[in-house]
Amino acid sequence: MSQRIVLASGNAGKLREFNAMLADLGIEFVRQSEFGVQDADETGLTFVENALIKARNAAQHTGMPAMADDSGIVVDALGGAPGLYSARYAGEHGDDAANNAKLLQALQDVPDAQRTARFYCCIVYLRHAEDQLPIIAEASWEGRILHSLSGANGFGYDPLFYVPTHGCSSAELPPEEKNRISHRGQALRKLHELLEKAG
Amino acid sequence: MSQRIVLASGNAGKLREFNAMLADLGIEFVRQSEFGVQDADETGLTFVENALIKARNAAQHTGMPAMADDSGIVVDALGGAPGLYSARYAGEHGDDAANNAKLLQALQDVPDAQRTARFYCCIVYLRHAEDQLPIIAEASWEGRILHSLSGANGFGYDPLFYVPTHGCSSAELPPEEKNRISHRGQALRKLHELLEKAG
């Protein structure tokens, strides 16, 4: 495979991560914003449906193959919330700080043993907008929610996500290490395997 | 795990296959028709989206965990058709005979080497109707389309699907052997693994 694929995201960090992970397959990612594609409405009820909606929107508007991911943090003590709505947990106009504050508030009386959580990521690849057989790769990253923010790397819920294997928050991990072990890093490795198999 | 799961299908053969494959996990399947659940509209654009629509419909109407599969035959010379529309290839009221006749007609001038095809199956499991993290298992079964019907077992496109590993059509395979190697059999084995891992 040697081709350009639209990434249904405007995030420069994500673009770098996707390019770094899949460059050896001859794939070059281009962000959908470079084609003037607007974000799709994320109306799905599962991560995989949202990822498909985003990838299909990008493929439809560009006529190119498209890839999209959807991810979030799943907190056991909150019955899986914020989950699909992680980015909008504190409202459509909330930012990382507001989301983290809301999560801390929701868990304020919850002891450590019950603060288990995982980051989850689903990546889908559509060869074209009508592709009925998307390649789907998913992965989880287990941890627990801290009692206060810690660390300055990463974004989103990283300062609140304690990584037991490393004894620190995911915002305290060096970016390369985080990309290696994170939900998105793991999902990208699975996707790499599946793309190689698909030929 | 020890529980009853609604199967979003009215097919007795499918019920037997699901029960046989997952009984050792303590799962007992009940068909949605026993709860009076009507079939959902399959409005998805991919197999996985259709399977999710069907499982969610069953979970919503019963309040129970639900499983659904969506499957079809993907013919390379037809750009992947009939694919998602395999069951309705000859129209909403067409039967297996009409579908097979239409497929033979569509491929009448296509030589053997270009008659490659695969059966594909996607099975999803939703713990409840709002489950954002379905368990997804998928599998393909490679073969090619014969020039005429052969064999009396199975259903659907089985009499036209040549299985190179066995030198016969899938309708000539003994049912146990077909269940072992088929797209659905393989997907059920993957699902078994995933359910064991999920605990």
TrEMBL record, chains A, B:
Bound cofactor: record note: Binds 1 Mg(2+) ion per subunit.
CDD domains assigned: HAM1 (cd00515)
Class in the EC hierarchy, top level: hydrolase
Keywords: Hydrolase, Magnesium, Metal-binding, Nucleotide metabolism, Nucleotide-binding
Subunit structure and binding partners: Homodimer.
Residues holding Mg(2+): 41, 70
Organism of derivation: Thiothrix caldifontis
Name of this protein: dITP/XTP pyrophosphatase
One of the record's GO molecular function terms: nucleotide binding
InterPro entries for this protein: dITP/XTP_pyrophosphatase, ITPase-like_fam, RdgB/HAM1
Positions that bind substrate: 9-14, 71, 155-158, 178, 183-184
Needed co-factor(s): Mg(2+)
Highest taxon, organism lineage: Bacteria
